[in-house]
Design goal:
Blueprint: E1 8-14, E2 18-25, E3 28-36, H1 41-44, E4 53-60, H2 66-75, E5 80-83, E6 92-93, H3 103-115, E7 121-126, E8 129-135, E9 140-148, H4 150-159, H5 180-208, E10 214-218, H6 230-239, E11 244-245, H7 249-262
Parallel strand pairs: 1-4, 4-5, 6-9, 7-10, 10-11
Antiparallel strand pairs: 1-2, 2-3, 7-8, 8-9
């Protein structure tokens, strides 16, 4: 018996700094690309679009790009374009106002549900901002936390003080800084790592008690193809209780949402 070919699905994650896309076929990633949103992305994206793509799912936290992106996709014959709507989620959002659920965080919990469907989950996404998402094994989203990302923290210190320069982010040789650069690096880097450990412990104790979670970390800072600190940060987060590193979790979640919409 011949089964019909599964369509090629396009997913696009529009973040605060980058637009990241992936093409999936039978859950396999065929192609992945990354464009800085400050560039002329509407021209750059054309090279990644063709008639083999059946539908697209866009998760955007920088919505000023949404209308133009929709027009660009439809001009290339991709008419089934879905933007994430948290009110259509099959994951229960146990928060004050489900409409406030950001697209990237919704995609992350979908990705977590696909990878670990029978576990309580804590998901850490380290990008321009750092988010912590908590979901039960019954697929109820409980909430989480948001904090500035590594580069945002370094930029804030530089822009809101008179003497601190803009410091490159990396793991310092010691937690005990010996000059301005290593003091800033230690404060920013280990605040993230230590804060992650604290929140993992807190969520496990207060949300899951005797049935601890699995912890997944994702985000641009953990992608070795784009981040110089990915290896060091991955190692340090695992010491704080992270079980898995999956840089493409958001894209996987967008794929699962698109499959749900297409009933694949």
């Amino acid at each position: 018996m011949n089964f019909p070919e599964q369509p090629i699905l396009l997913v696009i994650d529009i973040g605060n700094s980058y637009m990241v896309g992936a093409h999936y076929h039978n859950d396999k990633c065929l192609k992945k690309w990354r464009i800085r949103t400050t560039d002329d992305w509407s021209k750059l994206i054309i090279q990644y679009l063709d008639e083999t793509i059946s539908s697209a799912c866009i998760g955007s936290v920088d919505t000023k790009h949404d209308e133009l992106l929709s027009r660009v996709l439809k001009a290339k014959g991709i008419n089934a374009v879905h933007f994430l709507n948290p009110l259509e989620s099959t994951i229960k959002l146990n928060i004050d106002d489900p409409k406030e659920m950001p697209a990237d965080r919704l995609a992350n919990v979908y990705g977590g549900r696909f990878l670990q469907p029978n576990s309580h989950l804590i998901i850490i996404d380290i990008g321009t901002a750092v988010t912590f998402d908590v979901m039960t094994k019954d697929h109820v989203f409980l909430g989480g936390a948001i904090t500035p990302g590594l580069e945002m923290s370094a930029k804030a210190l530089h822009e809101h003080t008179d003497l601190l320069p803009l410091i490159p982010i990396k793991r310092p040789p010691s937690e005990l800084g010996k000059n301005t650069e290593t003091n800033v690096q230690s404060g920013i880097y280990y605040s993230l790592v230590g804060g992650a450990g604290y929140l993992i412990s807190h969520y496990n104790q207060n949300c899951f008690k005797s049935d601890p979670s699995l912890v997944i970390a994702t985000g641009g800072a953990l992608d070795p193809n784009h981040s110089l600190i990915a290896k060091d940060l991955s190692e340090d987060l695992k010491r704080q209780g992270v079980h898995f590193i999956e840089p493409d979790l958001t894209l996987i979640g967008l794929r699962e949402i698109l499959k749900e919409k297409n009933q694949i």
